[in-house]
User: Fold this.
Amino acid sequence: MSSVNPAPYDAPETEAARPRDEWPLWEIFIRGQHGLNHRHVGSLHAADAEMAVKNARDVYTRRNEGVSIWAVEARHIAASSPSDKGPFYEPAQSKVYRHPTFFDIPDEAGHM
Amino acid sequence: MTPQDLFQYLLRLGDNTLVLGHRTSEWCGTGPVLEEDIALANTALDLIGQTQMWLGYAGEVESEGRSADDLAMLRDVWDFRNVLLVEQPNGDFGQTMMRQFLFDLWHDLMLANLQKSADPRIAEIAEKASKEVRYHLERSTDTVVGLGDGSPESHRRMQAALNLLWPYVGELFVPDDIDAAAVAAGIGPDPAGIGAQYRNLADEVMARATLAIPSDPFAHKGGKSGFRHTEHLGHMLTEMQWLQRAYPGATW
Amino acid sequence: MYAQMIKSEATKEDPEKLAAFQARIDADDKIEPKDWMPLGYRKTLVRQIGQHAHSEIVGQLPEGNWVTRAPTLERKAILLAKVQDEAGHGLYLYCAAETLGVSRDELTEDLLSGKMKYSSIFNYPTLTWADMGAVGWLVDGAAIMNQVPLQRTSYGPYARAMVRICKEESFHQRQGYDIMMKMANGTSAQKRMAQDALNRFWYPALMMFGPSDKDSVHSEQSMAWKIKMNTNDELRQKFVDQTVPQAEYLGLTVPDPAVKWNDKTKRYDFSEPDWDEFFDVIKGNGPCNTERLAARNRAWDDGAWVRDGFLAHARKKAARRMAAE
Assistant:
């Protein structure tokens, strides 16, 4: 469901001032039954790699059998910078490791 | 096996999944973290689906025109045949997952045997259910180990949950006449036979979880036979059956 | 107020960058996490996606309220699957917000403290089983109307989350309408229940689209940035036009005597909801504001030891692995 009418919100500006023990963010890649390459399907939080794989099974496959799941902690992902798009689009600040959705998914994202 | 005995046997299977599925669904939207919420719902959905199959077949065997829904929604406490373990309240997340593990471990062994049942319908349902339950067991094992061997507080809570629930485990392995009839007909396994396997596996998991199984062998019973349920079941049914009871004969 | 803030921040930013950014949006280019973006765009998105996520999470409660009382095993499974989808949608949306440099726990804490809002519709109670029908039919119906165009929103991660959400959500409205059909064709008590549910949810559903365009503070900038795709009034009208015939089909009466087909405009005329009530609910005075926030806080607090316990275990495991190497 949707919040159609968001009220004003100030994005937190002092993130570093709020240290916390948060489960790390994982990027999930799934290869479906049809033998295609693993594809990025989304992200989730988990305490460790084993839990990330299990959570991925519950969240992103709704238990489809015969699929292969990769989980990579988001901070370990190396990503290209968008500089080839011209000088106006230099990388925005820090927190690259937080970006779970680096990967273009075709709009007609098929069922996993 | 007489149809009456087979009916009772199927009620036991179906009432276990019905009651535990309902208990699990009580968590809906209130889990400790989103990923766990989603996983709990998957477990509950599997158990509800299994209930439809077991109780659906039970209704056919009974031949009095009762559907799975009729059996779920229109029987009172004394007609339920689930073990006492599954009707115990959720408590905290640790208690819920300890209950789940203790049941899953039995469920997995039971279904492995039922897949070889001389009754083809039972074998078929067990085959489908066992795939789901294998995953339930993996997940609840990880949770018991993770939280048992976690922080001091999570360890303390998991040990408390085990102490509370272990006395409800023994009932799973106490055989009676209906079990004997099932064994004789090649329909189901001897519960006592599963017991030793269960204990070995439970010991292994609890060792990894740094938890100690209580030494007192005492076991509550009365759920499987229906002789004496705990007070918790009546309250659960009051909630679960309310609409069907308040508006008899309506279709939903 | 907020629009002003954006403006004053915007003036600090390089006009050339701003112009180039707007040109990309106008060309239907997708903005991705590492691309340059105006601070106001980032803040507005964090607020909007965060609130959208919160709405999914709080939105579990009014329907979760009936999971344990669903009348049949099948209805229970369907309702549970639907509420589970909402948890999933909240998860996808939090992840989209996280690409903007805010963490899920931070957003959660801002929800729990009341700093961030969620959709006001979830501050209304679900009192009978027919409310499960009305919520699916009307509330999801209104939400879908807003979400479908958001699949084309300018921010890539948000758009992709919406694609997945819309795909999964396609059954939600139908299951609600299906419940309503059963009720409307059922016993006299069921019919009364269905009408009563429509009476209570009609205006709150209309309010979901937000205040009239003329009173909406940050519409214009959001539409230029393509994080808002249609005006509130457009969507509300579309919703009424779609819903009134559906109510007629059910044999139910929309609780607004002004609802009438207008041959000139080719649309339905209808009455505005009571906006004083709307602002009251936003301020915290809705029928269930206190309970909803308390329920979320309880779940979060009760879950703290679980989250900490798993993390402690993960660290122990990692340390053991290190020691073994």
In short: The first strand of chain C starts at residue 260 and ends at 262.
